[in-house]
User: What shape does this take?
Amino acid sequence: MRGYRALIRATARAALAYRFNLLLGLGGVLMQLVALLAVWRVILADSPVNGFTWPQMRAYLLVAFAAGTVVSIMGDFRMAFRILDGDVALDLVKPIDYQRARFAEALGGLWIEVVLIAVVVGIAMALTGGVDVPAAPGLALFAVSMLVLVPLKFLIVYVSTLACFWTQNFMGVQWARLAVVNLFSGALIPLAYLPGWLAGAAQWSPFAGLTSTPALIFLGRVDGRHALVLVAVQAGWVLALWFGARLVWQRALRRLTVNGG
Amino acid sequence: MPIVEAKALTKVFRRPDKGPGLGGSVKHLFARRFTDKVAVDHVDLSIEAGEAVAYVGPNGAGKSTTVKLLSGILVPTSGEVRIDGLHPQRDRMTVAHRIGVLFGQRTQLWWDLPVAESLAVLRDLYGIDRATYRKRLARFDEVLALGEILPVMGRKLSLGQRMRADLAAALLHAPRVVYLDEPTIGLDLAVKDRVREFFRSVRDEGTTVMLTSHDLADIEGFCRRLVIIDEGRIIFDGDLEAVKDRFARERILHIETARPAPLETLRASLPGAEVTVEDTPVRYAVRFDRFAMTAGQVVTALAGLAELVDIRVDEPSIEDVIRRVYSGELVLG
Assistant: This one.
């Protein structure tokens, strides 16, 4: 455990080295969020669409932004480049489990993402008005769902980054992942806007847990048993992916060719 | 029992066989063809605890691949590796504590953290207690002058500083076996000397060292055993001094005389040596076998014939021997 704690601390410190990048990125992310808010405000100005009113959509977008920012800054590109240039060789001679070590690094970067979320959500709320916070049980379940989101997001990023062992390229893998995740998680548009069959499939996929589940719980669009089922699906995928990732890793090791001597 | 043992170790890489240009790449998408490249071919190697082994070979001979197989980074296609009797993949955690690896071209330091923090992370990863950690750092500091680089960020290190810090990182957990792959690449002479001195101190403490280098000066005076690999096969495995005695026995004495001396007379006085004129008529090179005559005998013979202004002896290095082995001119073993 001491080793993993050291990795969490080291990543948390190293994340500070990216503070200028983060500030620049912050501007971009904020513009995108403001643009989305502006578009939905126009669309929903007169009447709700698919049951979403403007204040609900505003809350949805803010939750989607928070969920999208968690486990997004540290980790994946670093891991990918280590695989691509062969520095992963050095990770393999350490007395730690590779998957847990990468998870520790993702946790280390979390604090700076939380700061970023707090700043952006704060600014957005100040500009567009506050959001309705759900009642205590809903809020508690929302918090659980956001916590489960951390390992879930990590695992989806981790497994897709392992694809670098086969593809020898990271950009393509990242774009493909973003396209799938944005559509099936409800990050781009709520799943209710998708055709029924696609929405149904997406709801049971691991991706729904990345945005749709916490957002719907926060909005109070699902509650009681239905909400519990959605969080259980989220947690189920965490377990399945944790062990599935180990199988992928075993195969990746056999594929490993270390580039550049 | 040997601490490192490889039996019929083989690694085959599959390379995509693409035609030239975009056309070749597109064709490869539909009809995938691969060629097998045998990087390491049935290598048998057995290293006893405390040995210092030089592992040399031309570029692409399979040196680095062997090191990666012996440290459990790569899974062999066939054959097996044992480190201290353990299987490097099955017992990855235990093996990791017993081996240290330095790849001269890679760093394990954190780019965005000071060196001291990178080392502290390793301390925690390997579960080294603080007192031992301080003791080891102090010892590394003596030879590697670590103190001045501990507060420097990984990305701001010069190559020489980086290598010193990486050496400390690779040896922090006092591994029983150390693989050093090109540990002096790109370093200036002063840093090289320091790093070599560090290797000697590591060896003298009983650590088993396997050293891969293109700079054979790293090897001379450090390794007793020489292993040469070429095209994935071991072509020589034996005592380094014996190789030198056998193949590097020639000496060249360069002399400069006050006035041009008759070459025939010089040659007649030194049967068994080869005398040639160098760039000017007052400079000569005498090539002789150091087991047939001594440098002193050569000088005495020449001093009677001409007034010697300057003399210098060239000793062929192990580098020359190995160069001749690579080119196929010399077959060892």
